[in-house]
Structure formats: C-alpha cells, structure tokens
C-alpha cells in the first residue's frame, strides 16, 4: 500500500507540473494562429501599429505582440434613410441603397478609419453626396427626374469613395417621402400642367384644321377662277354643238327658231 501511495503522489506531481505547461503551450499555439476566410482581408498590427495586409488563409502571429483583424471585401450593401433639403428648401426623407466593396488597399483604409469605417466614412460621405445632389433639384424634380438624380448621385459617390479604395457598384433611390399636404399640392400642379398641355395640343389641332380649310378654300377658289377664265364664248358654243343631238329645239310662241352661229 505504501508503494502505491508513493506512485500516486508522483503521478499527481507530474500532472501538476505537466498539465499547466501543456495548457500554456496550447494557448500560445492557439493564440499565434489566425485563419482568414475567403471574402475577407486581414490587417496585421504589431504593438498597435498596422504594418501589413494579409490574404485569406492560415497565418501565424507573435502572441501578445501581433494582432490580425479582418475586414470584409465582399460586396456589401448600405440601406439607410437620410433627411435632405431640395433646391427650393423643402425637406425630403429619402431611403438609399448603396452597394460597394473594398478594393485592394484595405491597409490604408484601416489606418485612417479602423474596422468601423462604415460609420466613420461610408454613411457620412453618402449623406454629404446626397445633400449636394439634392440641392440641385426642386422638389417636383425629385419625382420627374428621379433616375437622372440617382445617376448623378452614383457619379458623386463613386468619385468620393475612389480615393479610399472603395468601389461603388450601384446607388439606388428606394423611396422618398413628403408631407401629405405637399404630396397633394404636387399632384394638383402636375394635373394642371397636364391639362394645360392637353389644351395647348387641342388648340394646335384646331389651328391646323383651320389652316387646312383655308388652304382648301383657296384651292377651290383658284380652280374656279381658272375655269372661268378658260370658258370663252367660242368654247361654250363648241361644247354646246358637241352635245347637240341634231334636233332643233321645240319652242312654243312666236315661231322664232333659235339660230346657232357656226364659224
């Protein structure tokens, strides 16, 4: 029994020494390995300073000295509602959908904005670009020129984000919201404009038809004039002879027979 007790004590002593060592080694190995997934990019920092950009795969780092933070480089979407002012100083609530992705130089983007670049860069710059574009359009044009406005906004956002290595694939205006009173005012104005255009088209039609009638009347008058000038007495007499059937007309009365002058 004494031998067994001694062996157990030794085993406990060995485990007491070895187990912490194994745990420490395992922790060091685990903390020195980072796996970067496809669609992500890694930013390696050493003692708090970003030093390199790492591609997807397995990467080793110095424990407690190096850190590797990941940033998504897949296409991402921001859908957010912004409050903007139109050219005629009306307030509009607009919901945008912006699709973007981080380009090759994620290291510089991380150095300037960190991993929270969406709130520090993306959203504020979209808001600035939207305010700049919306100030060029009246509130009526927000409806009639919506596609043109979206194209101009896309151009503004692409130019702005290009300096930071961010590629913008699309920018869409999902919806805009006015007050009910202003919606009704816009509808009345658009209807009035449409009615005015319809009336103008009707007036143009009447004017065209009147001009056509005048032209037609002038043509008939000119044809009559030419016909009258061409009907000389000799021509009339000839036409009469061509239609005469050779019988003398029967005339009752004094017995005077009409004479036809033939030359």
Automatic annotation (TrEMBL):
Domain Band intervals: 31-190
Membrane topology field: Single-pass membrane protein
Stored InterPro entries: Band_7, Band_7/SPFH_dom_sf, Prohibitin
Family matches, as Pfam families: Band_7
Parts of the chain that traverse the membrane: 12-36
Localization per Swiss-Prot or TrEMBL: Membrane
Gene3D superfamilies the record matches: Band 7 domain
Entry-linked PANTHER family: PROHIBITIN, PROHIBITIN 1
Protein name: Band 7 domain-containing protein
Organism classification: Bacteria, Pseudomonadati, Spirochaetota, Spirochaetia, Brachyspirales
